Amino acid sequence: MNIIADTHTHTIASTHAYSTLQEMIHASAQRKLYAIAITDHGRSMPGAPGQWYFENMKVIPRFMEGVLVLRGQETNIIDTDGNIDLEPDCVGKLDWIVASIHEEAFRCENPTVEAVTNAWMNITKNPQVHVIGHSGTKEYEYDFETVIPEFGRTGKLVELNEGSFIGRKKSIPNCKKIMELCKKHSVPIILNSDSHISATVGCFEHSLELLKELDFPEELVVNASVDRFHAYLKEYSVVKNDPVFQSKSWRAK
């Protein structure tokens, strides 16, 4: 399986990451990726960039080194009602939104399965969100059987996060359960590196191994095909309104 896009990455603008935006894009070009999304953390994460950083992402060329660049954010789910910290002035301006739960930003003293399920169910109603970020985190388990079909029904891509195999190992059994349910319910997924340094952009070794173990259907992996990836962008992302996207050159590779 050939993964053509990495749509969850961080730059030094997220101050616990270690490579510049251009270094991340260069790495994606070296690995012959079709696209990369730059998704630095929303404001509730300690060390996150400010609002102007996201508002000014419009200056980033749509293509750099032959790679399609999506301007995005990893927004934080901040409560059990599924509210997120995406700045109102950024709504409709960013191409790609990953929604995740992080301990540093999630305001819930007792994250029960019911409470976290409610948060994710409300996220399914948010048209700004494209990707369900690393939702296998053990501390924030939810009713997978109930919620995952809703992710599919509402066009949310369920992420298999390569970083979870390295930094969130306790979540691996949940990641496997989630992938099994995505297969069962034909819910599209996306493989992402969650890279915080250019050396790991486009690296999906553990994720691909899990999909192979599960005999996961390639047609459900949105970023395993340029055409499937295009189709998703055309249906759900604001990129479709970009003049460059509408031109013949957007399919540069």
Automatic annotation (TrEMBL):
SMART domains, per database record: POLIIIAc
Keyword Nucleotide-binding assigned: no
InterPro entries named in the record: PHP_phosphatase (IPR050243), Pol/His_phosphatase_N (IPR003141), Pol/histidinol_Pase-like (IPR016195)
Cellular component terms per the entry's GO annotation: cytosol
CDD domains: PHP_HisPPase_Ycdx_like
Domain Polymerase/histidinol phosphatase N-terminal: 5-79
Keywords from the named record: Hydrolase
Keyword Ribosomal protein: no
Superkingdom of origin: Bacteria
EC id: 3.1.3.-
Any one GO MF annotation of this record: zinc ion binding
Name of this chain's protein: Putative phosphatase YcdX
Species in which this protein is naturally found: Caproiciproducens galactitolivorans
Taxon lineage: Bacteria, Bacillati, Bacillota, Clostridia, Eubacteriales
Gene: ycdX
